[in-house]
Amino acid sequence: MAGTSAVLFPWDNSYSVNVAAMDSQHKNLVGIINELHQAMSAGSGKDKVGEILSKLISYTKGHFAAEEGLLQSHAYPDLHSQKTEHERLTGTVTDFHRRFLSNEIGLTVEVMSFLRDWLRGHILGLDKKYSSFLNAKGVR
Fold first, then answer.
1. 137 to each of 96, 107, 113, how far by Cα in Å?
2. pLDDT score at 4
3. Residue 1 lies inside a defined structural domain of this protein
4. What is the pLDDT of residues 20-38, one digit of tens each?
5. Does a structural domain hold residue 132?
6. 44-57, pLDDT tens digit by residue?
7. How far apart are CA 81 and CA 126, in angstroms?
8. Residue 118, Cβ neighbours under 10 Å: how many?
């Protein structure tokens, strides 16, 4: 039944990087992952799931560009690590999408777990590192 599945990735304030724009975008990414999970759990058609996966890819690319731009504008010393990780995830998710659309893979629990775990790990790992750096420069 639609709407009865538990949320895959509830937002928690421990994910906050104390930069309003980035927190807002992270919440949106969490929301899209939850939307994708709910569509998958509800047995939505391939078109609907593919549409949400496309939205996730598009939003992720925009978020990464905004985050990298912010970090670059403040001369963040570990920007290279952020860019490398962003490129890795974008490549992985784009490949999931391509393989899903060509019926090579289904959208599985493993894919959903990867997305959740990657975003959680990225926010709590690399993104948390820039939090104090940007906050010290007055970026909130």
1. 38, 41, 35
2. 47
3. no
4. 999 999 999 999 999 988 8
5. yes
6. 878 888 888 899 89
7. 8
8. 16
Alpha-carbon distance of 49 to 71, in angstroms, equals 32
**How far is Cα 51 from Cα 98, in angstroms, rounded to an integer?**
12
* Three-state secondary-structure class, residue 31: helix
Instruction: Let me know if residue 48 belongs to a domain.
Output: yes
Give the position of tokens 């590192």.
129
Residue with tokens 């975003």: 119
d(C-alpha 45, C-alpha 55), whole Å:
16
Here the CATH number for the domain that contains residue 77 is 1.20.120.50
- In angstroms, the CA 61 to CA 140 distance is 22
Tens digit of pLDDT for each residue in 88-113?
A: 989 988 988 888 889 887 777 778 88
Q: How many domains does the chain have?
A: 1
Q: 81 near 126, Cβ under 8 Å?
A: yes
Residue 66 falls inside a structural domain: yes
Which amino acid is residue 124, in one-letter code? L
CB 112 within 8 A of CB 40: yes
**Mean pLDDT estimate for the chain:** 89
